[in-house]
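Severity: low
Component: inverse-folding endpoint
Summary: output formatting inconsistent between runs
Steps to reproduce: submit the following structure tokens with default settings.
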């Protein structure tokens, strides 16, 4: 599994990386601009991400805008909806409007509130068919 972890907070990035590195190749981006760049490069090279863990609140380009650009790139490349990259929005905000916007405007796959618990993350990965049920 190939994962892009997008978060401006070092601690949050490190925690997600520590949780996922045993089962995934992890790349890191510290803001939405870096995420969109990394996503485009991976798609162009034929090695798209299976999963993006995306923080919503970041400087320069926030997670909502990055997610909308990522979905637009997939459309430009005629990515079939079944093959779209799964996006788990990770945020400190437990906000109904943010959740609504991430899902219905941005095309997020799921939503986890920080601090992320490893058991919840892996349960989500299994429900998205990104992990075999025997892993972690």
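Observed output (run 2 of 3):
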């Amino acid at each position: 599994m190939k994962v892009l972890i997008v978060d401006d907070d070092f601690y949050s990035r490190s925690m997600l990386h520590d949780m996922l590195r045993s089962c995934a190749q992890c790349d890191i981006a510290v803001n939405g601009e870096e995420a969109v760049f990394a996503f485009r490069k991976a798609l162009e090279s034929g090695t798209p991400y299976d999963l993006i863990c995306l923080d919503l609140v970041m400087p320069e380009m926030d997670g909502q805008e990055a997610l909308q650009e990522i979905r637009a790139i997939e459309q430009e490349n005629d990515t079939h909806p079944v093959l779209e990259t799964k996006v788990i929005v990770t945020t400190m905000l437990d906000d109904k409007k943010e959740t609504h916007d991430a899902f219905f405007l941005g095309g997020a796959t799921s939503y986890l509130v920080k601090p992320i618990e490893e058991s919840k993350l892996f349960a989500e990965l299994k429900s998205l068919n990104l992990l075999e049920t025997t892993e972690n």
